[in-house]
C-alpha cells in the first residue's frame, strides 16, 4: 500500500513499437493519475484528441463488416481464418491501432466464440456519476450482434 502512495502513477509501457499511439498513451496517463480530482471527466475525455480522431460507426461498417464473406461461408471455413493474424478483421484492427499484437490471441478467441455462437450482446462501456446509463437508448452501452 505504501508503494502505491510513494511510486509514480501507473502508465502504459512503451518498449519499441508498442502499437500505442501518443494520443492514446497520453489519454491513459491522464486517466491513471493518482489524484482522482485531477483525472479527466467523461466530457473532457470525449473532447480528447484520441476520441476526436476516432473513426465513426460508418467506418467500421465500411472497413470491416461489409468486406466479410457471408456468415454461411465463414462458418464453413476451418479455424475461422477470417479473424487470424492475416485475416481481414485482425489486420484492420491492428492497422488502426485498435488492438495490440500481444492481444491477438484474446481478440481472436473472443471473435471465434462470438461467430460460433452468434447472439446479441450489450456491453456497458461508461460509468459516470454525471451520466445515467440507459440500456434502451444505448447511452453508456455498446451493442454487437451477428445475424444468422
UniProtKB/TrEMBL annotation:
This is Protein kinase domain-containing protein. Belongs to the protein kinase superfamily. STE Ser/Thr protein kinase family. STE20 subfamily. Residues 1-51 form the Protein kinase domain. PROSITE patterns: PROTEIN_KINASE_DOM. It comes from the Eukaryota. GO terms for molecular function: ATP binding; protein kinase activity; protein serine/threonine kinase activator activity. It comes from Zophobas morio. GO terms for biological process: protein export from nucleus. One of its GO terms (cellular component) is serine/threonine protein kinase complex.
Amino acid at each position: 500500500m505504501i508503494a502505491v502512495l510513494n511510486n509514480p502513477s501507473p502508465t502504459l509501457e512503451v518498449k519499441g513499437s508498442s502499437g500505442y499511439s501518443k494520443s492514446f498513451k497520453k489519454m491513459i496517463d491522464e486517466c491513471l493519475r493518482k489524484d482522482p480530482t485531477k483525472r479527466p471527466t467523461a466530457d473532457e475525455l470525449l473532447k480528447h484528441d484520441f476520441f476526436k480522431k476516432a473513426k465513426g460507426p460508418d467506418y467500421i461498417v465500411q472497413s470491416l463488416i461489409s468486406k466479410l464473406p457471408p456468415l454461411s461461408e465463414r462458418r464453413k471455413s476451418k479455424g475461422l481464418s477470417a479473424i487470424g493474424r492475416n485475416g481481414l478483421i485482425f489486420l484492420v484492427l491492428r492497422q488502426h491501432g485498435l488492438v495490440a499484437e500481444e492481444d491477438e490471441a484474446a481478440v481472436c478467441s473472443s471473435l471465434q466464440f462470438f461467430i460460433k455462437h452468434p447472439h446479441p450482446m450489450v456491453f456497458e462501456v461508461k460509468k459516470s456519476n454525471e451520466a445515467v446509463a440507459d440500456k434502451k437508448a444505448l447511452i453508456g452501452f455498446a451493442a454487437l450482434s451477428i445475424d444468422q
